[in-house]
Design brief:
heterodimer, A: mainly alpha, 10 helices, globular, B: alpha+beta, Sulfite Oxidase, Chain A, domain 2, 9 helices, binds protoporphyrin IX containing FE
């Protein structure tokens, strides 16, 4: 019974994580992204990437609260979705927001872009080592490596905050969620488990 | 005869009103200082321009000399893609929530270094003048731009009637503050110190391009575009063109302006459109002319002073525009 339900659950999560992308594509083709669709697309993809990160980090607390391991089994997939949206976000930025010009200036002189880039770079090794084969190869180092998601989250949030023009209410709301997700880990597992690359 | 040095924009009183009439009115005005009827005493020049009423058409004279023939940004986009943080920071927030703003009745307080301070109704302000239509480019500091047919009056004509004195070096403008009806002002996380403020140097304000708009696309201004009256200074970034104005003050010192107060290293007092000076967070060399699409972004090169250099470059002669951005 459980064996049958797990693939279905994974499928549902997969569909759920892909749904915002489908909606975005539909809005794009339906002309519902407004007069500056490139900018809108970039924003929505960035927000989706960030939200996916938070959802990914929500799986561990969920599995503890529900006492069920199913959440952990979809965690890697959700993390990959965060990466997927972040890469699309970067491509949208390059294509629609700066039009592939002045790249050097953008990626060196503009702090919020630098923060976003650091966040994405931190996510790259996680995406690459997310396969089952890589998990086996890395063994006990896999977990410490994947704790890079915490600094990635922090840099992504700084990036989010820094691009605000004046109202930071939304960023603060997300900060509260992020802090709760980190604090419960400290409470359960100790602060050392938040330090990446270090074997506990 | 007493010859007083007056700034060039200050009309000689005798050009406007016979001296005797002016003097007697002046005495009378003094007695009425700070009362709400000041406006009804202003001279009437021509056919009365009707006060703008939401959604209604306004009569106007097209001004081809002040208009670009570039393709206009569609009405729908002009009215549904706005930065008006009083209603939220999203581009659709203003069209969604500006309906909550109360624009009737509306009064504008004129104060400071001028001879005709007072509280004016919109009727008082527009009645003596005729509306013009000017099709201007609008360049947002966020690197997008539009082409908008505004209906309004030259700012200089409006200002002259308040008779600024020789100490009036700057003019300051303020947007309505009404948190009950402007949800953006209720946000505790906003870094804007409400009300929204803007200002111009007096010679900028008196430049022939500076415009006070009461409408667009032939109709009274929609609320999200700054009803009932807003500034339009097309050679400066859009945020200088302050919306829903309730206060005009003439002053000797440079006024504090909202974006400059929040991030002085990003937004200067002048904020002239200038492709040579980048915003610290993005380039200003190009702009997306809206509507843009995913298939063709519609990039165009940004022009210095938004292409209005001929009319305004002289205002900044000798100024280092990299320093006074
Ligand atoms: C090379 C990497 C990145 C670049 C160049 C970049 C660029 C940008 C730009 C230009 C914006 C402003 C969008 C606009 O208003 O036009 C933005 C917003 C944003 N980005 Fe990124 N970004 C990068 C990576 C990331 C990553 C890794 C995340 C999250 C995991 C992220 C999350 C966000 C969020 C949440 C926003 C705000 C969207 C909103 O306004 O609602 N970005 N990014």
């Amino acid at each position: 019974m459980l064996r049958l339900r797990m693939p279905l659950f994974r499928l549902l999560v997969f569909a759920g994580a892909l749904l915002p992308f489908a909606l975005l594509v539909m809005d794009a083709f339906g002309g519902r992204l407004g007069p500056d669709p490139g900018e809108r697309l970039t924003e929505r993809l960035g927000l989706l990437a960030f939200q996916c990160l938070l959802v990914t980090l929500f799986m561990t607390p969920l599995s503890r609260w529900t006492g069920s391991p199913v959440w952990i089994r979809v965690r890697r997939m959700l993390g990959l979705f965060a990466f997927f949206y972040a890469v699309l976000h970067l491509l949208a930025f390059l294509q629609f927001v700066i039009g592939w010009e002045d790249l050097w200036v953008a990626f060196t002189k503009r702090p919020y872009i630098v923060f976003g880039t650091i966040a994405l770079l931190l996510m790259c090794p996680l995406a690459i080592t997310s396969t089952r084969g890589m998990m086996r190869r890395l063994g006990r180092s896999w977990k410490p490596l994947h704790r890079l998601i915490y600094p990635a989250l922090v840099f992504a949030w700084l990036h989010f905050l820094w691009q605000a023009r004046s109202d930071v209410g939304e960023m603060m709301a997300y900060a509260v969620i992020a802090i709760v997700l980190l604090v419960v880990r400290v409470y359960w597992f100790g602060w050392r488990t938040l330090v990446p690359l270090r074997r506990a | 005869m007493l010859i007083k040095k007056r700034p060039s924009w200050a009309l000689n009183h005798s050009e406007v009103t016979p001296e005797s009439v002016f003097r007697s009115r002046r005495r009378f005005m003094a007695g009425l200082a700070a009362t709400a009827v000041a406006g009804s005493l202003l001279p009437r020049f021509s056919v009365a321009a009707p006060a703008p009423v939401q959604g209604q058409s306004l009569p106007f004279t097209p001004m081809p000399d002040f208009s670009t023939d570039e393709e206009k940004t569609p009405f729908r986009d002009v009215t549904h893609y706005n930065n008006f943080y009083e209603f939220g920071t999203g581009k659709e927030d203003p069209s969604r929530y500006a309906g909550e703003m109360v624009v009737d009745p509306w009064s504008v307080t004129v104060e400071g270094e001028c001879d005709r301070p007072g509280t004016y109704s919109i009727d008082d302000l527009v009645k003596p003048l005729d509306y013009e239509e000017r099709i201007y480019r609008l360049r947002c500091v966020e690197a997008w731009s539009m082409v908008i047919p505004w209906i309004g009056i030259p700012l200089a004509d409006l200002i002259k009637r308040f008779e600024p004195n020789s100490r009036a070096k700057y003019v300051y403008f303020e947007t309505l503050q009404d948190p009950e009806h402007m949800r953006g002002q209720r946000s505790v996380f906003s870094t804007i110190d409400w009300p929204y403020r803007e200002g111009l140097r007096m010679d900028e304000a008196m430049n022939e391009l500076s415009f006070m708009a009461f409408g667009l696309y032939g109709k009274a201004l929609p609320k999200q575009n700054g009803a009932p009256m807003r500034l339009v200074v097309p050679w400066k970034y859009g945020f200088k063109s302050i919306k829903s104005i309730v206060r005009i003050r003439f002053q000797e010192t440079q006024p504090e302006t909202s974006w400059n107060m929040i991030a002085p290293q990003e937004y200067g007092f002048y904020s002239n459109v200038n492709p040579e000076v980048d915003h610290p967070r993005w380039s200003q060399k190009r702009e997306r002319r809206l509507p843009s699409s995913l298939l063709s972004t519609n990039w165009i090169d940004t022009r210095k002073f938004n292409g209005y250099g001929e009319q305004v470059a002289h205002l900044y002669k000798g100024m280092d525009l990299k320093k006074y951005y």
